Amino acid sequence: MRWLHMLGILAILFALAATPGTTKADEQYEPLKQFSQVMDLIENTYVRDVNRDELIKGAIEGMLKNLDPHSAYLDKESFQDMQVETSGEFSGIGIEITILNGKLTVVSPIEDTPAFEAGLKAGDVILEIDGEPTQDISIMDAVHKIRGPKGEEVELTILHQGSNRPEKITVVRDVIPLDSVKSEELEPGYHYLRITNFNENTTSELQRAIKEIRQHGKGVILDLRNNPGGLLNQAVSVSDSFLSDGRIVYTKGKVKQAQMSFSAKDEKDDLNLPLVVLINAGTASASEIVAGALQDHKRALVIGERSFGKGSVQTVIPLADGSGIKLTTARYYTPGGNSIQAEGITPDLVVPFVAQKKDEEKPFSFPAVREKDLSGHLEKEETGDKSERLANGDKVELMLKKDNQLRLALQLIKGIPVIKALQ
User: How many Cβ atoms are within 10 Å of 421's Cβ, its own excluded?
Assistant: First the structure.
């Protein structure tokens, strides 16, 4: 009898699908009718009882997941976490993660966090979290499992790129620092500014550092390597700190609110010193906006490796029940009308990062993961219309010794005034 019941349901569905004389309005509602029919089938014939709210939540998650790698459903806890990440403290290990070819993958560890200290690198695949496989896990579920109270441990099974032997790493969660700007004087007059992410305090932190630099500065190196991005308005105001006029970035989307354009203002606090910007495969989103604006206006010499290539804008939209969705609503374009989506920013001078492994003299380069490698990424669109001061000299020496890109940047920043004088 159960089989006859199921066959009867299927016969009804086929009859509905074959009904002639449908109008355009009927065609628009047909997918919703199909959705309702499938949900009824699941509730009536699935092997165990299921909750309708869970089915709908799963359907919403699936819809957003199939759009692109950056759109997602946020339950109440995730929605609150999203707000905290850009404005307050949170506990975790400090990594940016994504799904790459169905695998949970590290985009970039945040500097000076437990993940960074534990040796996690861009391109590492997380196979297990506390012994639970990550196969088919969503980004938000992975975030919930990795994040936790300060002082508690999380065990990650990691597969490093180029290795076929998984490694178990135990990381102790801590409060993730939201200080995003670090400043250092490499040599008298030549300053190093490192921006690790873009949160609500980034521009104010940068301005404090610039205030000190302006008095005796000769040149600045702006390090955006392994910066996963953050708030769009902060990327705009950081760019404006180095530009006196001209467009910084503009966006194009389907709705009016997604059509935005931001331009620099001539302020007395703008820094006009020679500028070199460092980027790599971990330079993503908001940090690419800054690098692209400074490059297009020829305000800075950009060196390093091609950036990540995330040229889309996400809007977090609250829902009535306290949850929300993160939805890709626009593409952004550099001042010259270039979309860097799935392509990234190409440096003016390509300089691969080379470091030394411990106890070895042979140099190696770190692997890279970029937007174009993500499943379901938006394709590149045609171009649009055209502070903590470290005083320890030994530490500076060590920074320069282990970082060939930074050494070259320091040499170049000294030569920029000479080059300009010859032009």
Answer: 7
